[in-house]
Amino acid sequence: MVVLLTSKPVDEHDLEQLVGRVFFKAIDLLGGLHKLAEYKTLTWLPSLARAAFAIVLREEYLKTEEEIAEIVGLTRNTVRNILRADPNAAMFKIEHMDELTKEEKKELRVHTAGGVAKLAYKLVKEGNEAQTLLEFCREISAKAVQVCEAPWAYTVLKHTKGLKYPVETPEALKEKLSGITIKGLSAEEVAENLTYPIKNPAQLLHEIKEFLQMKEV
């Protein structure tokens, strides 16, 4: 039996949202805007944005090279190079940014942009969002729980400002929560007994809530 794969209609809102998340994650992988500015490579951003569009259109909407080229405004050959890019090779090059030539710093090559965007897309789909977005969510959540009179949740979010996600072990969290208590329990004890990794602020609150319920406090 022959199975035909057909593309689905593009939802402009969903497309914009996912491309934005992939774009911010790609910037994270490159070390953040500060590092890009330090290396005088902010001119890479348009290439990253186009690569993020191409990858999402292919992976989410099964668009052909011709269709992606028309939507994003690239040649078919450029789209093909983005889609065929190797994420590992791209990240190896980025990790050796110090060795890039002046010309390489001026313009991000298609293969490299495609590789970074591919890796960023994979991480976002696995739930590893960009640190910038997570920090914004943490601030919004802190304001929300403050209004809802959830003092321990507000305290946790307030003290975890700048915490890097995903949190793989208790140490970083224990350092942030050092000296405070959560419903009468040492925050360090709570942190020690959570399930890791923790991918975002919402999961952090959920894990703490489950631990408190288990302790019946």
Automatic annotation (TrEMBL):
It comes from the Bacteria. PANTHER family: BACTERIO-OPSIN ACTIVATOR, TRANSCRIPTION REGULATOR, ENCODED NEXT TO RECA SUPERFAMILY ATPASE-RELATED. This is Bacterio-opsin activator.
